[in-house]
Amino acid sequence: MTGSDSKAGADRQDVMAEIAGLVARVSAADHAYHSEDAPVISDADYDALKRRLQQLEELHPDLARPDSPTRRVGAAPSEGFGKVTHAQRMMSLANGFSREDVTDFIARIRSFLNLGADQPLALTAEPKIDGLSLSLRYENGILVQAATRGDGVVGENVTANAMTIADIPQRLQGAPEILEVRGEVYMSHADFAALNASGEGKIFANPRNAAAGSLRQIDPAVTARRPLRYFAYGWGALSEPLADTQFDAVARLAALGFQTNPLMRRCQDAEGLIVTWTEIEKQRASLGYDIDGVVYKVDDLSYQARLGFRATTPRWALAHKFPAETAWTRLERIEIQVGRTGALSPVARLAPVTVGGVVVSNATLHNEDYIAGRDSSGAPIREGRDIREGDWVQIYRAGDVIPKIADVDLSRRADDAVPFAFPTHCPECGAEAIREPGDSVRRCTGGLTCPAQAVEKLKHFVSRAAFDIDGLGAKQIEMFFADPALPIREPAHIFTLAARDDAGLARLKNREGFGERSVEKLFAAIEERRRIPLARLIFALGIRHVGEVASATLARHYGSWSALAGALDRAAPAAERHVRAEEAVAHERAEAAAQGRRARLKETRDRVWSEAPDPGDEARAAWADLVGIDGIGEVLAGSLVTAFAQEAERAGIDRLLEQITPLDVEAAPEARTEISGKTLVFTGTLERMTRAEAKSRAEAMGAKVAGSVSARTDLLIAGPGAGSKASKAAELGVTVIDEDEWLRIAGAG
Ligand code: IVH
């Protein structure tokens, strides 16, 4: 190579680097401008950067990058970061806090897999890093995407930022064609202290916040200056397995160039895990980075595959948390917040105190019994010590959860302190707040006329798992709720907002935080949500007991809004009888407890049933179908049907439905299996798979598993010893198969 060749090579390198830098800066400025409404550079600087980029691309067309912002036509990404749907869901972990939780975890796994006492079950133990999870996708050894966890299904695309982290290799040698590496981004204690001391940007409360804030920077150049690190501990989508065991798979990640945690161990039983946990805890203070527990994972990956997942957590892993950190402070006052279902929740306002690196000034007090020092059955908690305004209280935080009060110091209580009088009326609307028998909370009876309930319902409606409207969060809801010119008082108003008169819109545009562009963006985001997946809509309605998982289950079962609403309407008379009976039963239980006599539950229920009008066959069938759905209990079903039957609430729902189009649920074609949508019943003994495993397997394949045979059963899997269920199935003409056939269907034969 001649001197001038090598000089040309070096020049080329420089040009490539400059182009990469410009692409990152222009893209970041685009994001900041279009999505964040927070321009990071002046228009003149932006134009100069873009011109320079164009110039270099014209001079070196072969170096122009496919992702260059100069190639985007009017590109205005709708959000701060693009969204990424994870090829494989990013799960969270079940938590354990005690030795017993660990032995239970192992016992559950052994029973699920039907392991004999002599069959080994190895598990790995490794620190649980207190940072934020990041999924890295490599295709043919090249890092093509980095995404945060988000809600587990959809995360944020932070590729440009992740590329600036030294621990994250951009190229891998000898990796599978498709490899998604999962791990934790974190910041060391020393780097965290230096960052806060440097005066650059804001002060972070703890290393985890600093890591999250640094990774989620619009300008990757800022992330590049932050000392972020990465530990790899798992994987998502793979074109071929990394190894046969968790331990070896992590070793393979290390061989590929990732940082993996040096404290990871392989253990043979609960005792081994607890020894490792104790050793790791001893080192906790000297590790130089935050950990909040030890994660245990089943080592054998074929066992992991059989164990599978619950709704959001794997059955094969457990986070064994370290004990929560605590601190003492003064409880200044107790305030009552009114939630979306009318629950009056007491909140402790505290003199600020640092607990586990975070400044805490609020803590939950749960309900009036908790304040009074007793649990829902009347048994004493904190040995019966109540909590009063002015008391010294001990605060604890465990992981992410809202701080709680562990104890109260009676020796420091003022002589004139009085027991807290829990309000009997809603502090927001004045309506009576009543406590139903059997309910641990007092609820405002104001319904949607209570402004606090209405505003909380709206906040829930726009929340991330519900309508998730960009630019319309809790803060904006509060602002619009109170606004006389553009009021949003119920969900339907969000969609009629754009159609308001010009004078109102003009006012909106002039408001602080709302420029012309952000109003347009908000309207576009609202328009985008007029078509909404059915499950999100159900969840968004904010009906008591109807959470995200139940909403998805209901959406899958009914498939369309009209089928759901029709079924709920039909079920109403039967639900009413049921709800009335259960109310009477709860009342009887409370009365009996107060009078110290035996509760006559069955008699009470029977009496209400005989007194109530017969709901009719159609209602009975619709109700039976609803409560027959796996995962939909009677309490949830009652709450759902009642909400739909309640006049004012239903009118609001109908007004909303005039504005939007719920999308029907279609079973994803690739997910269709021989048994998707079918109802299965297992009976008799299965010899090669436990019931729990068979049920989990069937559900993962899109089937429903019921406990008894009925006309709705599609398939009965009968092992030896099958009794009445098999004869009932024969009577009803239900197909009956044996375990071998089941194993073939389940792909395990
Ligand atoms: S495994 C499917 N291992 O903890 C299992 N997670 O509470 C996925 N975390 O979202 C997680 N250290 O961000 C795993 N050694 C470790 C971890 C770890 C930290 C985080 C991770 C996850 C969260 C769950």
Descriptive overview:
The protein is an alpha+beta fold. Among the domains are: 83-321, DNA ligase/mRNA capping enzyme (D-amino Acid Aminotransferase, Chain A, domain 1, 2-Layer Sandwich), CATH 3.30.470; 450-489 and 496-529, 5' to 3' exonuclease, C-terminal subdomain (DNA polymerase, domain 1, Orthogonal Bundle), CATH 1.10.150; 536-663, no CATH class; 669-745, Rossmann fold (3-Layer(aba) Sandwich). The chain is built from 26 helices and 24 strands. It has a five-stranded mixed sheet. A five-stranded antiparallel sheet has the order 14-13-12-15-16. The chain is globular and about 95 Å long. The N and C termini lie far apart (62 Å). The model is unreliable at 1-5 and 73-79 (pLDDT under 50).
**CATH third-level topology of the domain at 83-321:** D-amino Acid Aminotransferase, Chain A, domain 1
Bound molecules: 2-(butylsulfanyl)adenosine
Termini Cα gap: 62 Å
CATH superfamily of the domain at 83-321: DNA ligase/mRNA capping enzyme
The structural class is alpha+beta
The radius of gyration over CA amounts to 29 Å
Per CATH, the class of the domain at 83-321 reads: Alpha Beta
The assigned CATH architecture of the domain at 83-321 is 2-Layer Sandwich
How many strand segments?
24
Shape: globular
- The fraction of residues in strands falls at 15-25%
Largest sheet: 5 strands, mixed
Helix content: 40-55%
